[in-house]
């Protein structure tokens, strides 16, 4: 019986090639997109869940209570880990991480042949790190590899890159020498597997934390601040979390001074929530994928699938009239309704199964394309065995929604009425259902289209807004040796295409995850009254280079090893109600020392446009001046090559790298750009699927109405009147879908835009533009079949039967 069902199903598919192709194409696209999105959602929502003790492992986060706000930090003071380890027996493991940082390694490949490598993901960890997190060792002793001061553990990627070792010879890497930063000799003591892609712990090399502690005594011993250090702990049992947090709240006064004890609170955040929680921001070297984005992506996946399924149901039920006589004959010959349902279900399931098989193949290729080309974030998406469960569930869903109902409709015809071609009542019922489904389908289509338009304008706002500083043709390089900065500047200014050069801790807007923070207060105020500010260091050319406008006072005249002058922004003045002129000569205290305000600059966007402008203090300090900024008159390859040559000639034994300031700013909107790219793609796919279904639907309707078209033409109806007659019903449905979609998309996009401090206001024409685009595409789709039928010779239609 099954063999016969499949044989007949295959014959019917071949018989009606156009309908079968439309159904197969639509379902394949819908299932493929749904699978890819669900794999992405699963990947991004399971970061660090693979660790054996992930359910009881936490990151210690810090709440910093200021007079007018609470700051949420994902980093903590470096001494915290050791203190917790010593004082809390109920904590199973505590580990301290510093970084990741960018470091240079020098490898001696042969006698007198030394090669420099720059690695952006060097982490300093203590010996408890590999006991807290799952680290797979390929060579070396896990217990002792990170205990020696001058040890280094490489990932298999770096072991292969530096020494050419493969999996069979990693043990040969043990004992190999590496020179860190051109001066510190390290010895390889272990090789580990590369960290998984869905982890916030992305490292290329692990260096003992004791080495960092020795070389950074101020940072590693400072309880008041935190400097890119992260504390993790594993409890003996997950239900201890609340008790440990309460105990830490009473215990911290043992180490914090009274002001810090009042200001600082510690909490435990599950490591499985770190990647999707926006409150604490991204981990050092990581990125955040908000839970809201993932929920929206999952909804979008099923919306795309539903659009494809609606097409399928519409096209199958539209064909029901053409197969009514077949049903009548089969019932007269003795077929039961269950036999007919089985036959039609197998026909529909065959298409669904073929679409699923094609989708698996397409998914594999599409994931590779995304991994290789989606550079906004780092992805390592793979189709795994567990994802076959996704496919199976989608097949079941598609079968229930798109196969069983049409089969029941087709099998429900009464044989007498079917043979007389009068199955009108069922046709009316399915016709009303088709109208409802088409309307719902185009509601989804217009949601995507209008949302993509609004997203496009918000992204354009991010790209073109005036930020309060110059960002055009600015190249950022490193300044590895402050003593050579003046020489480097003088050499560069002899180049024709270089107009200005400056040095500082960073550009006006914080980029690449680097932002120096401090607290500020008046000297007579208590530490508990201090407020949060961003700290920048800039040389005497900094203001002129970036075009920061002085509202009062003057620029720096000299940078000093001990700073004594501040330039502040307008936002900081609001804390005390000062005008720019009143602020001049005032003394303020920051964590790093005390100085006098000598200048006030107009507010500029020191944060990306998702966030508000924060108080900013610029110091005349020589410390932390690790970046060089170069303004170009011409950004041709020759100019960039000259900069590289000059840099390498000045900073020998260092690795050159550069970045355009504009590109760095663009990276601050990575998640938003990903969202825009997604909605742009989904809007195109939804229009494609919607119009594909509408095209097939109109094909069947026109075929059924051939005689009616012929009669109307004989009675004098013009081609245009026939086109309008057959298109207006579905065009009205598209118009109705616009009215339904408009308030929905307005509410959804307004909620999304509310997450940005600086945003556009959606205007009515954005919605109208989206509606008109969808309307015109739908009209063109309907009109294509209508025009074809309206221009046909009526004689060919009327002479049949």
Set out the fold topology:
Layout: H1 2-15, H2 17-45, E1 57-66, E2 69-73, H3 80-87, E3 91-110, E4 113-125, H4 129-132, E5 137-140, E6 151-155, H5 156-163, E7 177-180, E8 184-192, E9 205-208, H6 209-215, H7 217-220, E10 229-235, H8 241-251, H9 258-263, E11 264-270, H10 291-318, H11 324-332, H12 337-373, H13 387-411, H14 415-419, H15 424-464, E12 474-478, H16 485-492, E13 498-504, E14 516-521, E15 531-537, H17 542-546, E16 550-553, E17 565-569, H18 570-573, H19 580-583, E18 587-590, E19 593-601, E20 616-619, E21 627-632, H20 637-650, E22 658-660, H21 661-667, H22 670-704, H23 706-714, H24 719-753, H25 764-790, H26 794-798
Parallel strand pairs: 4-9, 6-8, 15-20, 17-19
Antiparallel strand pairs: 1-2, 1-10, 1-11, 3-4, 3-7, 3-10, 5-8, 6-9, 7-8, 12-21, 12-22, 13-21, 14-15, 14-18, 16-19, 17-20, 18-19
């Amino acid at each position: 019986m099954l063999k016969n069902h499949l044989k007949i199903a295959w014959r019917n598919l071949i018989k009606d090639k156009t309908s079968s192709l439309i159904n197969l194409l639509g379902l394949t696209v819908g299932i493929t997109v749904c699978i890819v999105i669900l794999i992405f959602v699963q990947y991004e929502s399971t970061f660090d869940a693979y660790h054996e003790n992930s359910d009881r492992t936490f990151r210690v986060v810090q709440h910093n209570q200021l007079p007018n706000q609470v700051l949420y930090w994902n980093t903590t003071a470096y001494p915290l880990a050791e203190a917790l380890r010593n004082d809390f027996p109920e904590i199973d493991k505590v580990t301290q991480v510093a970084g990741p940082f960018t470091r240079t390694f020098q490898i001696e490949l042969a006698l007198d042949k030394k090669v420099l490598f720059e690695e952006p993901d060097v982490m300093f960890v203590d010996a408890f790190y590999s006991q807290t997190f799952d680290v797979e060792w390929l060579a070396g002793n896990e217990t002792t590899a990170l205990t020696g001061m001058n040890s280094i553990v490489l990932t298999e990627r770096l072991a292969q890159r530096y020494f050419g070792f493969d999996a069979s010879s990693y043990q040969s890497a043990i004992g190999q020498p590496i020179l860190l930063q051109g001066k510190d000799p390290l010895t390889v003591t272990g090789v580990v597997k590369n960290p998984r892609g869905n982890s916030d712990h992305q490292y290329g090399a692990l260096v003992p934390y004791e080495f960092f502690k020795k070389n950074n005594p101020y940072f590693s011993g400072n309880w008041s601040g935190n400097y890119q250090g992260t504390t993790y702990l594993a409890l003996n049992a997950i239900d201890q979390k609340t008790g440990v947090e309460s105990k830490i709240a009473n215990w911290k006064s043992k180490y914090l001074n009274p002001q810090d004890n009042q200001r600082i609170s510690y909490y435990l955040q599950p490591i499985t929530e770190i990647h999707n929680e926006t409150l604490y921001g991204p981990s050092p070297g990581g990125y955040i994928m908000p839970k809201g984005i993932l929920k929206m992506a999952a909804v979008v996946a099923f919306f795309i699938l539903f659009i494809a399924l609606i097409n399928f149901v519409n096209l199958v039920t539209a064909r029901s009239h053409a197969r009514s006589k077949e049903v009548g004959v089969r019932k007269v010959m003795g077929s039961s309704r269950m036999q007919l349902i089985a036959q039609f279900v197998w026909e529909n399931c065959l298409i669904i199964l073929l679409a699923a098989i094609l989708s698996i193949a397409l998914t594999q290729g599409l994931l590779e394309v995304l991994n290789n080309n989606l550079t906004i974030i780092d992805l390592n998406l793979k189709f795994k065995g567990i994802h076959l469960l996704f496919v199976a569930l989608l097949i079941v869903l598609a079968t229930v929604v798109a196969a069983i109902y049409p089969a029941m409709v087709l099998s429900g015809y009464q044989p007498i009425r079917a043979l007389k071609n009068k199955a009108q009542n069922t046709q009316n019922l399915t016709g009303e259902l088709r109208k409802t489904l088409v309307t719902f389908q185009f509601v989804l289509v217009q949601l995507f289209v209008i949302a993509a338009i609004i997203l496009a304008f918000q992204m354009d706002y991010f790209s073109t807004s005036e930020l309060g500083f110059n960002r055009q043709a600015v190249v950022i390089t490193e300044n590895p040796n402050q003593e050579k900065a003046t020489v480097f500047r003088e050499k560069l200014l002899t180049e024709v295409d270089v107009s200005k050069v400056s040095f500082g801790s960073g550009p006006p807007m914080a980029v690449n995850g680097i932002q120096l923070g401090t607290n500020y207060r008046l000297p007579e105020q208590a530490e508990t009254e201090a407020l949060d500010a961003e700290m920048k260091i800039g040389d005497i050319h900094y203001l002129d280079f970036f075009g920061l406008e002085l509202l009062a006072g003057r620029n720096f005249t000299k940078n000093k090893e001990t700073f004594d002058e501040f330039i502040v922004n307008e936002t900081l003045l609001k804390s005390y109600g000062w005008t720019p002129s009143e602020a001049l000569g005032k003394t303020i205290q920051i964590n790093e020392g005390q100085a006098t305000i000598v200048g006030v600059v107009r507010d500029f966007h020191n944060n990306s446009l998702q966030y508000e402008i924060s108080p900013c203090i610029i110091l005349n300090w020589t410390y932390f001046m690790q970046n060089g900024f170069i303004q170009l008159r011409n950004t041709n390859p020759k100019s960039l090559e000259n900069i590289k040559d000059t840099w390498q000639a000045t900073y020998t034994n260092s690795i050159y790298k550069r970045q355009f300031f504009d590109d760095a700013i663009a990276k601050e909107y990575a998640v938003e750009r990903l969202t825009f790219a997604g909605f742009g793609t989904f809007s195109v796919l939804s229009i494609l699927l919607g119009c594909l279904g509408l095209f097939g639907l109109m094909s069947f309707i026109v075929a059924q109405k051939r005689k009616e078209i012929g009669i109307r033409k004989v009675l004098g109806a013009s081609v245009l009147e026939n086109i309008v007659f057959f298109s207006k019903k579905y065009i009205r449905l598209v118009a109705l879908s616009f009215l339904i979609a408009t308030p929905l998309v307005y509410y959804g996009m307004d909620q999304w835009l509310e997450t940005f401090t600086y945003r556009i206001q959606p205007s009515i024409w954005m919605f109208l533009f989206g509606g008109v685009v969808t309307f015109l595409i739908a009209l063109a789709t309907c009109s294509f079949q209508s025009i074809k039928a309206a221009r046909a010779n009526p004689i060919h239609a009327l002479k049949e039967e």
